[in-house]
Design brief:
binds calcium ion; alpha+beta; 401 residues; 29% strand; 8-stranded mixed β-sheet; Fumarylacetoacetate hydrolase, domain 2; 8 helices; SH3 type barrels
């Protein structure tokens, strides 16, 4: 290796995720994470090792780089893997190509045109159904037939490290028939993963489950901030609106599907059988360990492999009516809960609507998220000594403005 990579680093030679960073003296550009460093792709381009224009690496987002297609971007990744391990490579002995992550600022990796949020964890949908509707019929009749989703808000997706304000809105106090206005009293996180669309379609086009991987560039950690009290009052009949659109946070490095290939696993059995356009072949789930911490207390341990509906099915469903998708579009999984109580991916479930407060290391307890709290999500896959991680999405909650 021509650069030191600490053991257990999320950003091992097997990963090589793409992101957008800036430094004190220079504006946004593309890079890949390796160990505790960033390999500056705009600088690497100057060595004449890439056969595409330098501009795509000097933009404020990766959209034009992704638009080069996987034949190019996958080759860039594998070339970098070879070069970093070859003492005689074009990158050897060139410290100016590397920036310490601690000295860089990360930015949103893509310009997100559209954002869709799914609801694809059966455990999460069941828990929410039990709490808000009928414990005996927690899942609505459509749930096992449709990867349920809604169109979210792209404008308020922010990168890890950017603080957010507690939202204000209308809520209906208990035992009251009149709503009140004020800061949400039930601010929550939702542990999700998001995938970034890597290829455009035209209106009328559909993407089959077999084709879906060609249209997925990679994944990030995704925190779908949610105001439960606002949600409860507004969500019937058209679903989430102001309870969700005030903020979502993502991790800055896009881990490619190529890097995640070794961690594919079979998904849960789908019964009843899905309609033919949602049927799929092969392993479409991914074994990715996920954790959530409030300040320094770990409160949730889950896994992306629990998802009932996989990304290929989500994309096939999203486009089956001819809806077009664009490079940079973000598709989030829905809250990722497992079967165990410590694997629930939201405070709503962990503290069971406030009835089982979560204990923190400092002796305080939480039913939801307080002002001043920092919520941090981490994720990594590991197999046969190979570790591929996402870093973190960490967000501090400020008081309402
Ligand atoms: Ca969500």
């Amino acid at each position: 290796m021509i650069i030191n990579v600490p053991e257990n680093s999320d950003f091992s030679i097997h990963n090589i995720p793409f992101g957008i960073f800036s430094t004190k003296n220079r504006s946004k550009r593309a890079g890949v994470a390796i160990g505790e460093h960033i390999l500056d792709l705009a600088e690497v381009h100057k060595l004449g090792v890439f056969n595409f224009e330098a501009e795509v690496l000097n933009r404020a987002d990766l959209n034009d780089f992704i638009a080069l297609g996987k034949s190019v971007t996958s080759e860039v990744r594998t070339n970098i893997q070879h070069w970093l391990q070859d003492d005689n490579s074009p990158l050897a002995n060139k410290s100016e190509l590397f920036v310490k992550q601690a000295e860089a600022q990360m930015h949103l990796p893509v310009c997100i045109g559209d954002y869709t949020d799914f609801y694809s964890s059966i455990e999460h949908a069941t828990n929410v159904g039990k709490m808000f509707r009928d414990p005996e019929n927690a899942l609505l009749p459509n749930w096992k037939h449709i990867p349920v989703g809604y169109h979210g808000r792209a404008s308020s997706i922010v990168v890890s490290g950017k603080a957010i304000h507690r939202p204000k809105g209308q809520t209906l106090p208990k035992n009251s028939s009149e709503p009140v206005f004020g800061p949400s009293q039930r601010l929550d996180f939702e542990l999700e993963m998001g995938f970034v669309v890597g290829k455009n379609t035209n209106m009328g086009d559909t993407i089959s489950t077999n084709q879906a991987n060609d249209y997925i560039f990679g994944l990030v950690l995704f925190n779908d901030w949610s105001a439960r009290d606002i949600q409860k009052w507004e969500y019937v009949p058209l679903g989430p609106f102001l309870a969700k659109n005030f903020a979502s946070s993502i991790s800055p490095w896009i881990v490619t599907l190529d890097a995640l290939e070794p961690f594919k696993v079979a998904g849960p059995k789908q019964e009843p059988k899905v309609l033919p356009y949602l049927a799929y072949e092969g392993e479409k789930n991914y074994d990715i360990n996920l954790e959530v911490a409030i300040n320094d207390t770990k409160v949730c341990q889950s896994n992306f492999k629990y998802m009932y509906w996989n990304m290929a099915q989500q994309l096939a469903h999203h486009t089956v009516n001819g809806c077009n998708v664009h490079i940079g579009d973000m598709m989030a999984s829905g809250t990722i809960s497992g079967k165990n109580e410590n694997s629930y991916g939201s405070m709503l479930e962990l503290a069971w609507m406030g009835t089982k407060p979560v204990q923190l290391n400092d002796g305080t307890e939480r039913k939801f998220i307080n002002d001043g709290d920092t919520v941090t999500m981490t994720g990594y896959a590991e197999k046969d000594g190979k570790r591929v991680g996402f870093g973190e999405v960490s967000t501090k909650v400020l008081p309402a403005k």
